[in-house]
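Handout, section 4.2: multi-component inputs.
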Amino acid sequence: MIASMNVQTYNLLMSDLGITEKRILCGMGYYDDVAPEYIITATAEFLKLADKNADLKVGFAEYSAEQIQLTRSTVSISGYTFNVGKIIANHLKGAESIIVFAASAGEKFDKWIASQFNANEQLYGYIADTIGSEIVESACDWLENFLVAKFEGIDWKCSNRLSPGYCNWNVEEQHKIFALLPDNFCGIKLNESALMKPIKSISGIIAAGREVRKLDYQCNICNLEHCYKRRKDKNLE
Amino acid sequence: MEILEKLSECIEYGKSNKEFKHPPHLVGSDGASELTAIALSQGISPDDILKKGLMTGMNRIGEKFSTGKAFIPNLLISAKAMYAAMEHLKPFFESGEAKHKGTMLIGTVAGDLHDIGKNIVKMVMEGDGWKVIDLGVNVKTELFLENLNKTENCIVGLSALLTTTMLNMEETVREIKKFNESIKVFVGGAPLSEEFALKIGADKYFADPHSLTKYIN
Ligand code: B12
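Output:
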């Protein structure tokens, strides 16, 4: 039994997310450069097929102020202490509520990607793979918007979404994230190495409260040295 | 030789065969498959085809990739064109007339299921004239050792994408070196670094496969 009074999950459709071809192309690296026509066409075709293969779920458990303790580099949620580091702790400042969330494109999607790779069409496999990454990211964007709207009424703001494995927050702490969510949440299982299955899954937390502020995140503070994917355009439609 | 230059262009831009309608400037002309067959029929040696045609093309696209001028999809269609050409060269490798530069055993380490990065390394290495034995994902140390027993003179490539699974590399590297210290072990994957590679006893870290081929050549 988890100690959250408010657990919700949502099944989403691709049409809820409005993912564009451009977003997928950027996901493959083509920000400023124009992708070859052949790749653009294949991406458009695969995007149409993605809906049939996605079983998109996003959900969260909300923990309230009395269950949260924040220090300069840690946060405890319902008895589980996370060593999030100073930067992430700073994002959580003023939290009156912490939303522990997960999202997944579903097992069928992983299988679809694998079937494209197995058909020996590496390009199609990679396009399907990128679509998978972008749809689960997009499901998290959806959740952020949902939470902003939910808290607007009481004049609370939300932080960015913050995930273990980013920004010096050890990926291993995902075990505690899942301890704060019901079993098999959104169909996700975590292995010993803190790898989620289905692969196209994301976990994390979001803080909400009157004094919470949305700060710069992701590429601006990420310390990944060799990333081919630094987001140059944060407002992809 | 003009035909080998054309062949390398087909590899660089990913023109597998005549029917393939990409890239725009080569639509309708012979692709890697046709050009390789023609080159062989003209008596050009498989070795020259490999080195002056295929490898030149793969190197060019690899260079563009590592300098951010081309992306993974470009690399994948180049690799496809290279495989189309390789089909014609297979019999020469089987008969021993053409030789691989060596063999690479590659796998994603135990606990980790990421395979795209590893697959790309595999393709680039094959394009550079290596025979690659792909052990897949979640590869336990024993499987590496089992294969090292069966394979002479090879190098090893290990991939990991999480900070948790990259720790599993340490054991694999240690056991491989215990098995035979002279076996070169190269590692890669987003969270790794040169410092980490050296700390776990691997020979070197590479941010992308092209840097590896440049280094070993
Ligand atoms: C796309 C992506 C996702 C997608 C899809 C992931 C997937 N596996 O399909 C989604 C959004 C789902 C995702 C989720 C998560 N992700 Co993620 N993700 C990425 C991202 C942006 C790209 C990964 C990718 O596909 N790269 C493309 C391939 C081709 O690159 P590659 O595998 O690195 O391989 C290249 C090189 O590394 C090299 N190489 C690789 N192996 C080898 C081997 C040898 C021998 C050589 C020479 C070279 C070499 O050559 C390849 C070609 O250039 C990376 C950041 C990055 N820039 O890499 C983070 C990254 C991998 N993710 C990360 C994290 C933390 C996560 C999550 C744990 C976050 C969370 N809490 O939810 C989850 C985990 C998901 C799971 N299933 O468990 C971290 C992992 C590091 C860590 N701390 O452990 C990274 C590195 C980001 C970061 N800033 O730190 N992720």
